[in-house]
Automatic annotation (TrEMBL):
This is Heparan-alpha-glucosaminide N-acetyltransferase domain-containing protein. It comes from the Bacteria. The chain crosses the membrane at residues 65-88, 100-118, 130-147, 154-173, 212-233, 245-263, 269-294, 306-327, 363-381. Residues 21-236 form the Heparan-alpha-glucosaminide N-acetyltransferase catalytic domain. Keywords: Membrane, Transmembrane, Transmembrane helix.
Amino acid sequence: MQSFVSTSTANVKSTSVASGRLLSLDFFRGLTVAAMILVNNPGDWGHIYAPLEHAAWNGWTPTDLIFPFFLFIVGVSITFALGGAGKFENEGKKGIVGKIVKRSATLFLLGLFLNFFPKFDITTVRIPGVLQRIALVYLACSLIFLKTTSRQQVTLLAVLLIGYWLLMTLVPVPGVGYPNLEPETNLAAWFDRTLITPAHVYKPAKVWDPEGLLSTLPAIGTGLLGVLTGTWLRADRSPAEKIAWLFTVGCLTTLAGLIWNSFFPINKALWSSSFVLLAGGLAMLGLAICYWVIDVKNYRRGVLPFVAFGINAITVFFLSGLIPRIMNLIHVDQPDGTKTGLKEYLYRSFIAPLFSDPTNASLAGALTFVLIWFGILWWMYRKNVIIKV
């Protein structure tokens, strides 16, 4: 990761679309990352409120929307980062592509490092992951944005979603003999077992991976919805027209996902096409609300702490995954002679005793972790420290 300190706050606090940065987009990204950290770090994994858990298989919870929201935001951000062709005249498209590939490789390797740490066992390391999927979606969507028109992007989006639906529901699964959407016997699971092998997939699932290979194709579709949304936001139209169309398209996209659910179930683990439309439509509506309130109506109260999260999103996501693992390598002696990790010890000693309900205690532990990061990122924001990947 490359760190730099800005010489002016103007580039962070600008709300102009022409400036290449929307405060509402930073806020929406920060809100999404804060939610991601919240659901990934409960005080007690055995006691979690249902909305803060993933759906067991088909269906969805608010937690299931967090990752697709982030991929959608990645797509929107691509249009602001790469949309101003004039600033790349000195580099040329070859130089731009090189930077895209380098950034994608960095994201992928950061995700792989998290999977390696702390055992660094190459025989059992999980290869896919959240950062790895972000890297692949960023790479694909950036190159598509550079090489295609918006109309071609809509066509490609349709091909990805319809093609994935047909693959998953019509192609017989080798070794099974018929197409199906069950956890361990669907086509995407077969790809994971065959190309990644069970030793390198998500350990709780054992023979498939929720960030596996085949399901990355519709995940690219989620990024493309963001690309199309970002292109619309950058268009030379009035804010009212932009918001009206975003609300209209967002509602229609959500409705299409709910309709498609009747014959291709909404499923985050499969990243089903109906899930892409549902999450993408809701993300459009969420961003439209943020854009209207923050950038058009210039509302600021309570916004900047989440902007601080959004500006250093990848940094906080990476470190929020790494630091708890480091803390759990530090063992603390217990009165009964056993040892426990430092993170678990702090939770059991200082948070859990304050609550009679273990689920409330678990939520308080997660909120405490998020608030600590709020403090760190707010300090970085005030000092204008941005860490870019």
